[in-house]
């Protein structure tokens, strides 16, 4: 498997002292007056860092009958829940990854040990046994029905743009669709737009339903760490937009100063507005995936964190911050996501669907690669398969169950 062939994600924009002081003051005020999410006002905080396997509770009953749940439709609904442990011997790897001794040696070792054991249940990594279960509604995440997925998206192209975390998202899509991840077989030689442009240096095109001639579903991925609103950026994004029916965007953990993020967001939102007014009206649906967090001390994690209780102040308290890796600007990037990106998308592009994964991912310090490139600690990326599959199942839920 080829993944993250560049170390650009390690680079961080350096903030000046003035910007830091300004941000800290603003953040302190905002945390007292505002909820973390502008559009949903959904607040949560950690109640503790103990890790435990959470078992699925028995369904609620009314007069002896099961009380049916409706499909989850909003982030408030599907983010209120818990990670549930399944100790069944039927649980197995949902798909396989190729050997990755450079970027994910521990993940490769765990998969090899499981396969060498003859798929013995006790050799399955625990992080593959957890599934997100909302409290008051249901997600269509109990399995991957390839026929339903292919039928629903027949004739469509899914365009994805983002950094290495979005690359993990498309790996998961490919894994569920093909049974294996083989992205190196699907590289597209970059064209003029991408020559000499390191921020969108890779493009992958792959059919997601290759085994059934009835269906034609295409996945196109464009590696992009930062959108900066330059001419080459607009040209590359325009090319992706024009061929995508579903467009999934996320700029990941590559920090930009607030003023730069505002300019970049205004630029690409304006570009989308312009293209959506065209006769072809592409894409049909824009999905913005929020950024996951990098965890501190992921090497000692043995399962999800306990339930994060709701709060009327800020979802990222001092207690919550203690589980976030200090190397990354995760909290600040998520604030930018809430106060810059999402308000503009929701007000100007009504066809936007928010895929909120930061709260559920915050509870998953387990399942990380732990050891990454050249032996460096990697508490940002996950093993594939692993907790990243929840992001893909959330996409599946929206397009198949909700038919968005």
From TrEMBL:
This is Protein trichome birefringence-like. Belongs to the PC-esterase family. TBL subfamily. Residues 45-70 are annotated as: Disordered. Pfam families: PC-Esterase (PF13839). Residues 296-397 form the Trichome birefringence-like C-terminal domain. GO terms for molecular function: O-acetyltransferase activity. The lineage of its organism: Eukaryota, Sar, Stramenopiles, Ochrophyta, Bacillariophyta.
């Amino acid at each position: 498997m080829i993944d993250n062939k560049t170390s650009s994600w390690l680079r961080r924009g350096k903030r000046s002292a003035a910007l830091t002081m300004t941000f800290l003051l603003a953040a302190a005020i905002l945390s007292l007056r505002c909820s973390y999410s502008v559009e949903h006002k959904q607040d949560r905080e950690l109640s503790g860092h103990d890790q435990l396997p959470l078992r699925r509770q028995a369904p609620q009953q009314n007069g002896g009958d099961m009380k049916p749940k409706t499909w989850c439709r909003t982030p408030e609904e599907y983010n209120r829940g818990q990670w549930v442990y399944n100790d069944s011997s039927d649980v197995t790897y949902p798909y396989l990854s190729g050997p990755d001794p450079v970027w994910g040696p521990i993940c490769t070792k765990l998969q090899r040990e499981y396969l060498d054991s003859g798929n013995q249940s006790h050799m399955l990594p625990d992080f593959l046994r957890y599934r997100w279960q909302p409290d008051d509604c249901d997600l269509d995440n109990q399995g991957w029905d390839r026929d339903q997925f292919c039928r629903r998206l027949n004739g469509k192209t899914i365009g994805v743009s983002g950094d290495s975390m979005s690359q993990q998202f498309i790996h998961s899509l490919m894994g569920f669709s093909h049974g294996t991840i083989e992205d190196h077989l699907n590289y597209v030689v970059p064209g003029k737009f991408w020559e000499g442009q390191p921020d969108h240096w890779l493009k992958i095109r792959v059919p997601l339903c290759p085994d059934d001639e009835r269906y034609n579903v295409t996945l196109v991925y464009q590696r992009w760490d930062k959108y900066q609103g330059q001419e080459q950026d607009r040209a590359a994004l325009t090319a992706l937009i024009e061929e995508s029916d579903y467009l999934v965007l996320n700029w990941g953990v590559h920090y930009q100063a607030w003023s730069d993020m505002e300019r970049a967001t205004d630029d690409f939102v304006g570009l989308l507005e312009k293209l959506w007014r065209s006769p072809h009206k592409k894409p049909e649906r824009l999905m913005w995936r929020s950024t996951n967090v990098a965890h501190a001390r992921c090497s000692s994690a043995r399962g999800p964190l306990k339930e994060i209780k709701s709060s009327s102040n800020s979802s990222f308290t001092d207690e919550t911050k203690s589980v976030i890796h200090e190397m990354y600007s995760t909290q600040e990037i998520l604030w930018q996501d809430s106060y810059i990106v999402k308000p503009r998308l929701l007000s100007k592009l009504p066809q936007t669907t928010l895929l909120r994964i930061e709260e559920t991912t915050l509870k998953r310090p387990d399942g990380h690669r732990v050891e990454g490139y050249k032996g460096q600690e990697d508490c940002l990326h996950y093993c594939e398969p692993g907790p990243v599959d929840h992001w893909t199942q959330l996409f599946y839920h929206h397009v198949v169950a909700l038919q968005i």
